[in-house]
Amino acid sequence: MAVADSGGASAEALPFIHDDLELALRRAGESGRPLVIDLWAPWCHTCLSMQHTVFTDPALVAMGPRFVWLALDTDRPENAGAIERFRPEVWPTFYVVSWDGVDGLIQASQAGSTTVAGFRQFLLRGEQGALESASLTARDPLWHLRLGDREVAARHQAQAERAYREALRLAPPEWPRAPEVLVRLARTLYRQERYRACAELALSELPRAVSARDASGSDFAVYANLCADKLGAKPLAARVREALVAPEASLAWLARLPDAPLSADDRSDALATLREVYDALGRPADARAAAAAQVEVLDAAVAAARGPMAQMTYAWPRSEVYVYLGRGQDVLPWLQQLTAALPEQYDPPHRAAWVLHRLGRDAEALPLAERAWSLAYGPRRERIAALRDEVARALAAPPAAAPR
What is residue 399's predicted lDDT score, i.e. its pLDDT? Predict the structure, then answer.
């Protein structure tokens, strides 16, 4: 899905139904075509990246007539029932669903970003799923992968963990699906608060997780780092972080691999995680180098983006890394241009208000926070309200006493 840029024609290339699950299921049933569900949100930069890069690629557009397409904005209250049936584990989450006459049956899932080739393979797996379901047995790793995905959608994390572990046990050594299954397994361990098991998985499986050289490796590293954070000062946490920044078969290796099939958004995320790891290891110079590399990636992506909606993909990561480097004032003119170009979007004024607040310019931040709040909806409105209230309190606070 893509949205019309201000003053321009819609960039939507695939025939999405928006925010109407029942209509989409009915069309899938009537046509016999699988249903592709995109669970997204306007604040999700990875969602926007997929919409403006992957979904506009001719290779996917050509597959459009083979599916029914549904986009569900997960922040919209009217979508609560649909999201209860098809729950996102992360943003974005994608499902391919077949209609069994009663309900939609998940045939394939994709959590987070992927390349055009990766999304195409996801669609093909889903398309073939209904036919394969009759012939697959519990001896096939794909059977357990599909079971794990369905358990995740039902919020049965422990059952999903068992299914993913069994898929990996049964898989041949060079199974190409292994990296994505490792991401799913790490996520289930994190959701169960089994941080030690998650960290041990990271130490044993990081080389295999990054072997595909795509977003699976960086996503696996995210959970490895999150679990290390939860372990605090334990030696296991330090071992995980050292593995993540090792010269080879690591997050550091993947983030800087020039020919890795990573979108600008994916590479930015990988560098942001790498920066967090370096900071946790007490290596500030390396952290700043990762941040500088992230700025280069994001600046180039903004320059290449087609219109303000596509540029909005990078509003949060670009704001965050510029502030991290002490350069918040440098990103403000661009955020102000986005705010003017996209008067119905809440994200640009929200990010501009956040940057201004971090710079101590709260009188300028408050009207932008109020504007973002007036445009927002769903859970994001509460977060923007929290920023607005924080800015208002800062303005009301008495000035700090001058040093004597």
Answer: 65
CB 276 within 8 A of CB 315: no
pLDDT band at 400 (very low <50, low <70, confident <90, very high): low
Tell me what the mean pLDDT of segment 38-64 comes to. Answer: 95
Three-class DSSP category at 84: helix
- Which sign does the torsion angle of CA 140, 146, 150, 155 carry? positive
Tokens coding 166: 């069994």
Q: Which two tokens stand for residue 328?
A: 């918040």
Count CB neighbours of 76 within 10 A. 16
Quote the tokens at residue 382: 């509460």
Does 298 reside within a domain? yes
Amino acid at 4: A
What is the per-residue pLDDT across 28-42, written as a single tens digit (0 to 9) for each? 989 989 999 999 999
Question: Which residue do the tokens 């201004």 mark?
Answer: 356
Q: At 73, is the secondary structure helix, strand, or coil?
A: strand
Q: Would you put residue 155 in left (φ > 0), alpha (ψ -120 to 50) or beta?
A: left
Domain CATH number, residue 291: 1.25.40
pLDDT tens digits along 262-274: 999 999 999 999 9
Q: What is the pLDDT of residue 3?
A: 26
Q: Is 258 left (phi over 0), alpha (psi -120 to 50) or beta?
A: alpha
Six token digits for residue 401: 């006493």
Say what the pLDDT of residue 1 is.
29
Amino acid at 357: H
> Smallest Cα–Cα separation from 96: which of 104, 114, 88?
104
> Can you tell me the distance from the alpha carbon of 399 to that of 363, in angstroms, rounded to the nearest whole number?
14
Spatial neighbors of 170 by CB under 8 A, at least 6 apart, are: 139, 140, 141, 144
Place 132 in a pLDDT band, splitting at 50, 70 and 90. low
DSSP single-letter state for residue 50: I
Q: Residue 120 sits in a domain of what CATH number?
A: 3.40.30.10
Residues of the domain holding 31 = 1-135
Neighbouring residues of 210: CB distance < 8 A, sequence distance ≥ 6: 179, 216, 217, 220, 221, 249, 250, 251, 253, 254
